[in-house]
Amino acid sequence: MKKLTTLAAATLMLGTSSLAYAETKIGVLMDITGPIANFIPPLQNAANLAVKHVNDQGGLLGEEVVAVYGDTTGTAQGAVDAAQKLVNIENVPIVMGSLMSGTTIAAAEAAIIPAGVAQISPTATSPAMTELQDDGLVFRIVPSDNYQGEILAKMVLEEGLDKVALTYVNNDYGVGIGQTFKEAYKKAGGEIVAENKHEEKKDSYRSELASLAKGDAQALVVIAYAGDSGGKIVRQSIEGGLFDRFVGTDGLRDELLIQNVGADALKTSFFSSPTSPAENPAQKTLHDAFNAEYGEGADKAFVDQTYDATFLALLAIEKAGSTDRAKMAEALRQVAMAPGEKVGPGDWAKAVALIKEGKDIDYDGASGTAEFDENGDVGGYIGKFVVDGDGYKQIAIIE
């Protein structure tokens, strides 16, 4: 079976998929450009590593598998356009992605669900996904922001912060966590002394910050992306002497933030983010393989989830025994959930052998187990992170 050349792999990274030898495809929808672009390179590596593991161990349905990339550009319309190409032109049987909640939902509603294609996101956390009219086609392997918002409220109070200001971006992601955090924090006795729901892509947030700083807040809670409004709000807060302590979620836990404002300015700040279970041997297996392949980067945010979601999508195709879209959602549940013989990252040949023997498999990944409920949601783990040099260090995990 022909191996992917360096040129072919680079071509895939650019989204071109017409490789003559390829007979089996998987759609990979990512926000390659836009507000979370800084997150993307290690996540592309994670998806590519899952594909490599399959191709190195016999391929998918006996054929070379090709990852066909679509770039959402970090916008709803970009997501729709990229998803329509994947499902209507590339005819992929299943889509891994997208990453941002807004792009995931837009792609699902306008293109992926109407085409009858199963979709699994590694990172989209908006509570709105739970209520999607998706015919059972949309899955994710991170917990809903309903959960992260509650845990964040607990973290803030445990830090002795009982008076905070809150700003969150006006999109599916920001509103989801922001509203849940606010309700949980106030219910537990915290006081939000000032609040603002802000818009993306503005050059200045100084007027909003001036209003937020009028109270006696001990910290500013920022729920937004570091590559867009979140990073600007933190930087302009520091420049204006308005706030010097920040609390953020996964969108702000971006090394771009450290590069832009400096580690010293963030030494009292902390961040919540979906994470992996502690002492998970599957995570070590993946991280060793990842770093052996790419030299570094296994510890970057959402590498575990992206690899797992890609590997699960590939397992679903193998389990279905074809690229029949109608079989993907059921097959995805079958390979992800108990009961079944355990397989983990890189265990492709083992999984294929078990499937051929008619045995059930249960994939336990680097990010944990994926026991889907009726809405395609999972439980999971939220980590607490602090700045450590030019990166982030996890100091606690809450299941």
UniProtKB/TrEMBL annotation:
<keyword id="KW-0813">Transport</keyword>
<dbReference type="InterPro" id="IPR028082">
    <property type="entry name" value="Peripla_BP_I"/>
</dbReference>
<feature type="signal peptide">
    <location>
        <begin position="1"/>
        <end position="22"/>
    </location>
</feature>
<keyword id="KW-0029">Amino-acid transport</keyword>
<keyword id="KW-0732">Signal</keyword>
<feature type="domain" description="Leucine-binding protein">
    <location>
        <begin position="24"/>
        <end position="336"/>
    </location>
</feature>
<protein>
    <submittedName>
        <fullName>Leucine-, isoleucine-, valine-, threonine-, and alanine-binding protein</fullName>
    </submittedName>
</protein>
<dbReference type="Pfam" id="PF13458">
    <property type="entry name" value="Peripla_BP_6"/>
</dbReference>
<dbReference type="InterPro" id="IPR051010">
    <property type="entry name" value="BCAA_transport"/>
</dbReference>
<dbReference type="GO" id="GO:0006865">
    <property type="term" value="P:amino acid transport"/>
</dbReference>
<dbReference type="InterPro" id="IPR028081">
    <property type="entry name" value="Leu-bd"/>
</dbReference>
<comment type="similarity">
    <text>Belongs to the leucine-binding protein family.</text>
</comment>
<dbReference type="InterPro" id="IPR000709">
    <property type="entry name" value="Leu_Ile_Val-bd"/>
</dbReference>
